[in-house]
Design a protein that fits this description.
The complex is a heterotrimer of chains A (376), B (100) and C (170).
Chain A (H helix, E strand, L loop, with lengths): L1 H36 L18 H13 L11 H17 L9 E4 L2 E4 L8 H22 L3 H32 L4 H7 L16 H4 L6 H4 L1 H14 L25 H25 L8 E2 L2 E3 L5 E3 L2 H27 L7 H29 L2
Antiparallel strand pairs in A: 1-2, 3-4, 4-5
Chain B lengths: L3 H21 L3 H26 L3 H31 L13
Helix pairs in contact in B: 1-2, 2-3
Chain C lengths: L2 H22 L3 H21 L3 H25 L10 H23 L17 H9 L3 H22 L10
Helix pairs in contact in C: 1-2, 2-3
The chains are: A mainly alpha (376), B mainly alpha (100), C mainly alpha (170).
Chain lengths: 376, 100, 170
């Protein structure tokens, strides 16, 4: 009992440690990456005795110190309790979502099999959506408590955008759930280890040499759902191209205009934590999660027949490294997207969410259902 | 396992608090929120009995109560918006036009 | 007094406190946030009662969507003036509700569950079993509920629409 609790605590600590550090490092990646794209140098002034540590001094020491030592200003006519509570409400769902994301298969220590996932819920993906719905409160309450018309406008826009894209996100995942027939994220990650040739019905055997050797990743089985989900996830995190709620040139930073110091740091870290969450969800649902192609629990099983056995610890390390690399890739992709694409106008955002993505997601569900029924 | 009585008593207390809210608050939105509180107390009773009797009918009932509560909250808020546009207040005392 | 009972008592106390806050706080936004807290606590109670699917749906639908709608309406209809409580009516209502509680609570305390609760399988309350019930035994109420939601959407849009030619109110 105590050992179980200790194992869960260690897993939770590791996951939170990774996410929060990644959120901090992404801030630096954003600054340097945007500088590269825009052909400038970026932030390079923070250094200790000339040692800038490749930006680590800036990220880990200078930036947090700057935020934490700024004056913490609460608007006098605003609501003091809610003004303080709003950043916590924005950060909490982004971190808590990681409880159901699997970062590895199993770790076998002696006779104890540890599932590398903090909480194994049988309603896994629904828990993620539930926490996503709770993320709206940080925006709404933060906007309200600031007693500022720009803030309120940004907050209302932001929350309307978030609840619109939650619908599209949920429906686009429906196709993935139908293909893998489970809500549990660890099962979805495990099922993506199969090869497509094991899923092909007898009538489509002619496709076997073409795509049969691919692993059954979600992106191969549900490409439209991947595009819809990725777009909806970027819209949920309110990053460019969907960042009119906090548009810097339109609304003077929108719903966090009255926040400074530690509270703004929480909003800021919350936004990057949501970037990491979106990347982790896309990897788990569509890119196999921790799966390395052709790597089973005892080693590599290549489709042309050869087998390369590996010790268990090497397999676990390969799987966790694969997960981390995929998550980093999608974080980088979102940052690249931010600095390459202009932002949408607000009515364009709403039209995209309701009139284009929702019908496409429904179409995806219908076509998936037809294919599944026809394949039986 | 927590005995069933505990859940029923908790549900009764929350229901009574909801009734207090409906009776004494003079803000239509808070009245609507107290009604939601009462519905949730009833949901808790349903789920407690579902676990006790081992029947899924309780959970299905909660599913439908949630759907109906959502529809009712939406319509109630739309009515409140319309009434506010006419009377510019949320106090039910000012909406007694039907009293003789 | 095992761990489950202690956790239940903590959750129950917090739930009663947040319900009291819903009813007795003066600013409407604070009441709404107290109701969100109450809904989340009830969702935790659902999950502890072997109803994980319904618990997660409670968070998603009730705390995540309905209460956001309440907050939108509160922000738009900001009446500005706090309501004036009337001591006489408050006293009478509290007395009546205490009487209601005093009637219900002993009634439920005397309810003897009798035999032990039916041992349920591990799948009780999981999405599979809920879906089987919903699409098997209860498919007719399910379809009627979808029609109900459609009617509610249309009704809400029609009710809250602004009339053309009205004198610019709100």
């Amino acid at each position: 009992m105590i050992v179980d609790l200790a194992i869960i605590s260690v897993k939770a600590f590791l996951v939170l440690f990774m996410v929060l550090n990644l959120a901090g490092i992404l801030g630096w990646v954003e600054r340097k990456g945007s500088a590269l794209i825009q052909d400038r140098i970026g932030a390079n002034r923070a250094s200790i005795f000339g040692f800038a540590g490749m930006g680590l001094v800036n990220t880990l020491i200078a930036d947090p110190l700057k935020f934490l030592t700024k004056e913490d200003f609460i608007p006098p006519a605003g609501d003091k309790l809610l003004h303080t509570l709003a950043p916590c409400m924005a950060l909490f769902p982004a971190l808590v979502t990681f409880a159901v994301i699997p970062f590895g298969d199993v770790l076998i220590l002696g006779d104890r099999v540890i599932n590398l996932q903090v909480a194994n819920l049988n309603v896994g993906i629904l828990y993620v959506f539930a926490m996503g719905s709770l993320g709206v409160y940080g925006i709404v309450i933060g906007a309200w408590a600031s007693n500022n018309k720009f803030s309120l406008l940004g907050g209302v826009r932001g929350s309307a955008q978030m609840i619109s894209y939650e619908v599209a996100m949920g429906l686009s995942v429906m196709g993935v759930l139908m293909v893998y027939s489970t809500l549990d994220l660890q099962e979805i990650a495990r099922d993506q280890g199969m090869l497509i040739r094991e899923l092909l019905p007898a009538g489509a055997a002619f496709l076997q040499p073409v795509i049969g050797w691919l692993p059954a990743w979600g992106v191969f089985l549900q490409p439209l759902a991947f595009l819809l989900f990725f777009t909806a996830a970027v819209a949920e995190t309110k990053r460019i191209p969907f960042d009119l709620p906090e548009g810097e040139s339109e609304l003077v930073a929108g719903y966090h205009v009255e926040y400074s110091g530690g509270k703004f740091l929480m909003f800021f870290a919350g936004e990057f934590a949501e970037v990491v969450t979106a990347a982790a969800l896309v990897t788990t649902l569509f890119f196999g999660g921790w799966q390395v192609p052709y790597l089973m629990r005892d080693g590599f099983h290549f489709p042309w027949g050869s087998i390369w056995l590996l010790p268990h610890l090497a397999v676990v390390i390969l799987q966790v490294a694969a997960f981390t690399l995929k998550v980093l890739f999608f974080c980088w992709l979102q940052i690249l997207l931010r600095w390459s694409v202009p932002r949408f106008r607000y009515d364009q955002v709403m039209r995209l969410g309701w009139k284009m993505m929702l019908p496409l997601a429904l179409l995806n569900v219908a076509v998936t259902a037809l294919i599944i029924v026809a394949a039986q | 396992m927590v005995p069933l009585n505990y859940y029923l008593i908790l549900s009764a207390i929350v229901f009574s608090i909801g009734v207090v809210g409906v009776l004494i608050r003079r803000n239509l939105i808070v009245v609507l929120m107290s009604i939601e509180l009462m519905l949730n107390a009833v949901n808790l009773t349903f789920i407690a009995f579902a676990r006790h009797l081992g029947s899924m009918a309780g959970q299905v009932a909660v599913f439908f109560v949630m759907a109906v509560a959502a529809a009712e909250a939406v319509i109630g808020l739309a009515i409140i918006i319309s009434v506010f546009r006419q009377t510019r207040t949320l106090d039910p005392q000012n909406m007694q036009l039907l009293k003789w | 007094m095992n761990a489950a009972t202690v956790i239940f008592l903590i959750l129950a106390t917090l739930l009663v406190i947040s319900s009291l806050m819903v009813v007795f706080l003066r600013r409407v936004v604070h009441c709404a946030m107290a109701l969100v807290t109450a809904l989340l606590l009830i969702a935790i109670l659902f999950i502890s009662l072997q109803a994980p699917m319904v618990g997660v749906l409670q968070v998603m639908v009730y705390a995540g969507a309905i209460m956001v709608l309440f907050l939108f309406v509160i922000m738009f209809l900001n009446p500005g003036v706090l309501e004036q409580p009337s001591v006489a009516w408050w006293g009478l209502a509290v007395v009546l509700s205490v009487l209601l509680g005093a009637f219900l609570v002993p009634l439920f305390s005397q309810y003897e569950p009798g035999d032990n609760p039916v041992t349920s399988t591990e799948l009780f309350g999981s999405p599979d079993v809920l879906a089987k019930s919903l699409f098997g035994e209860f498919v007719l109420p399910f379809e009627i509920a979808s029609v109900l939601l459609l009617v509610a959407i249309i009704g809400a849009v029609v009710l809250a629409k602004r009339e053309h030619g009205s004198d610019g109110a709100a």
